[in-house]
Amino acid sequence: MKTNFFSKVASGAIALLIAAGCSFSANAQGYINGDISFTGGATLNGPLATATAFTSIFGPGGTGLPEVLAVGGDYAPVAPGVPANISLFTFIPSPGSSFPLWSFTFGGINYSFQADPTITIDYQMKGFLDISGTGTASISGGSFITTPGTWSIVDTGQGSSPVFTFGAATQVVAPPVPEPSAFALLASFVPIIGAFAYRAKRKV
To answer: Cα Rg for the chain, rounded, in angstroms?
Structure first.
């Protein structure tokens, strides 16, 4: 009976140990956390309901490059209005390989996003197009690790040869990592489990 008791207590300690080891933090040091959006205009190879590719992407005034609209998190140092290069690409069918979605330089730091090959058509109808995908974000300078993220592009407009309002957004969230406190708690249970196991063995 005592052996069963110690076995149950030891099992409980192991269960707690495993639970402690699964404590995570989304604020992993070195990973990018933040969001950024762009604004401008675009032309496509047909009406929004049937278009399959972008033929031009430009600034909100009809010339120049698209501009940064809003920023958050690790993109907060970037000033709204900074021009950005946004690639032209085909979304039906999806590209056969990854491609650079957007990039720009601000304050001597390069910001970029590499899109994965698969593109999702969330909505496509007259006057409205919404596409999205995944990829990896990078910020130069050595302080950040390339981080997975998501992107979306929305266009609205009318006409058979349209110039559409263009909006692009990217969200990057650092992958969770175990908290240092979880490892400390893990280590503290090692001698306890050993003691339970030793006592249980002597009672057999």
So the answer is: 26
Q: Which tens digits make up the pLDDT trace of 118-135?
A: 999 999 998 899 999 999
Q: State the Cα–Cα distance between residues 86 and 84, nearest whole angstrom.
A: 6
Is 90 exceeded by the pLDDT of residue 94?
yes
Position 28 in a domain:
no
Any residues with CB less than 8 A from the CB of 194 and at least 6 apart, and which? Answer: none
Closest CA to 70 of 36, 102, 104: 36
pLDDT value for 105: 97
Domain containing residue 11: 2-23+179-202
Q: Which two tokens stand for residue 19?
A: 């639970």
Amino acid at 108: G
If you ran DSSP here, which 8-state letter would residue 59 be given?
-
- Asked whether residue 111 is assigned to any structural domain, the reply reads yes
Q: Are 83 and 152 within one domain? A: yes
Of 41, 64, 35, 34, residue with least CA distance to 169: 35
Distance CA 156, CA 130 (A): 9
Q: Are residues 160 and 192 in the same domain?
A: no
Please name which of 131, 141, 132 lies closest in space to residue 111, comparing C-alpha atoms: 141
Q: What is the pTM of this model?
A: 0.72
